[in-house]
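re: ur question from yesterday

yeah so i grabbed the chain u mentioned. its 407 aa long if i counted rite. heres the sequnce exactly as i have it in my notes:
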Amino acid sequence: MSTPNKVVLAYSGGLDTSIILKWLQIEYGCEVVTFTADLGQGEELQPARKKAVLLGIKPQNIYIEDLREEFVRDFVFPMFRANALYEGLYLLGTSIARPLISKRLVEIASESGADAVAHGATGKGNDQVRFELAAYALNPEIKVIAPWREWNLSSRTKLLDFAQENQIPIEKDKRGEAPFSVDANLLHTSSEGKVLEDPAVEAPNYVYQRTVDPEDAPDKAEFIEVGFKAGDAISINGEALTPALLLARLNKFGGAHGIGRLDLVEGRFVGMKSRGIYETPGGTILMEAHRGIEQITIDRGAAHLKDELMPKYAELIYNGFWFSPEREMLQALIDKSQEFVTGTVRLKLYKGSVSTVARWSDYSLYSEMHVTFEDDSGAYDQKDAAGFIKLNALRLKLLASRQRRLN
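ran it thru and got these structure tokens back, copy pasting raw so excuse formatting
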């Protein structure tokens, strides 16, 4: 790869990306632009600006952007229309944030005249794949720099030594081994590494940051109502909220009741298995609520087809193919299925669990007249079931007859 003239770095302001910033300046002698995205990680981002200035970045080359609404509206909500779960459990909180960060990296590169982007993902993880596939899908000519695959700073000690040599401020708690690594955004927190690396050992309770221990959650259940329009949540308890505010509110409800904890050993796209602790309080509530409203508004055939396609859709997001044509094709199908997914769901929150207890919609397909055990006034003729069963049994009877002949 030719030497870049200007690089846009996905920058958190933490030790690793600050080291990357300085390394880019030294290794390539290039101008660096920093991009810090507010995705609802719950941290003050202005220190990242001060750190970038301290490391010699021009003020006009420092981008700090609040992307919370775009994140939930254009990435989280479309994913939740599909009820997407990776390996049956993971709500894809880290995976779904990467395409948005990559999108802005490429856009800022174009705006600032940069010819390369850089990220701080390691060579062992999924994020390197997600960042780079998204970047190339949006700009096939862009250069991507992944320092963790290039440099020789292969240990925490070497990183700290590099920081000291180049006068990069080191927070006191970074001088020792960090107990675990955390990634966070408005949808979830993800913790992995160090004390979590042995899947045979229960995660210590201090790992959890957004949820109380379910055993310590309130002894009294709480009930909330979530309103939907065309598959997206639009209100809580009758109050209309923007996508980001709605998810933040659900996070508070879920966190208070210990909802959304997950201890998962997952199969990474790069081949290895990894143990992670995830907290998705609002997302877990949202998933249950969305399932609840779909139960009465989506036809059986459409619902079952969605469920068949969902694992593939989830895998595409997990593996970094958000901007692929196959994901977009599936999204069009999923979005079509949500045309009448409008109504309200009442949920019960209690000690780590969330369950649907009621749901109603002007577009409901539920017909009490057809399912009642009382007089249905001729809405359904039970005698029709006999022919239905006979036709469906025909091939099974023929198969059984053949088997009898062979025996």
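noticed a couple things. The chain has three domains: 6-178, 182-298+340-360, 368-406. also The two ends are 69 Å apart (CA to CA).
anyway ttyl
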